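Notebook p. 47: complex prediction with heme C.
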Amino acid sequence: MFPEKQKFVVFSVLCIGFLTYTSFLYTHLPNPNPSFSSSEAKGKALWQKHNCIACHQIYGLGGYLGPDLTNEYSLRGSMFIHIFLQSGNTTMPNYHLSETEIQELTDYLKSVDQSGKADPRKFSINTNGTINQ
Ligand code: HEC
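Predicted complex, structure tokens below:
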């Protein structure tokens, strides 16, 4: 159907297009290097160690015994989180965390708060496929 030379040209154009687009994507990632300060990173490790996700959601994903904590920091503030983590309550276990650990978890929740919104059911989808949070 096509002469060999035309096939080669089409193949070359597709290869160059693929490589250009791939290198563009990898050099323009939306968040290539998430900047977790060491305190946030330690907070994330504590979050995983104590399996907080078993009862809480982040970005709408996780367990449903406790509330979604994605925007807990801006909704309740760091003082509330501190006091809550110091004591727990009848349904939330008290992990007997140190003051430093509580600060690290609070810093982690602060970074989560800055990175997204909680309830995806409240998002609206635009006609071009993008999302309004
Ligand atoms: C066994 C389940 C469970 C685990 C595990 C758990 N929580 Fe909770 N948490 C709850 C429940 C249930 C509540 C709601 C308590 C209430 O409102 O009376 C809660 C509430 C909270 C709140 C207050 C939310 C609000 O606005 O009222 C914070 C902050 C919190 N948890 C943080 C954490 C962190 C951090 C961890 C991990 C170290 C964790 N939780 C692990 C069950 C859990």
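Notes: Strands lie at 57-58, 61-62, 124-125, 131-132. The longest helix spans residues 4-27.
Next step: compare against the earlier run before touching the bench.
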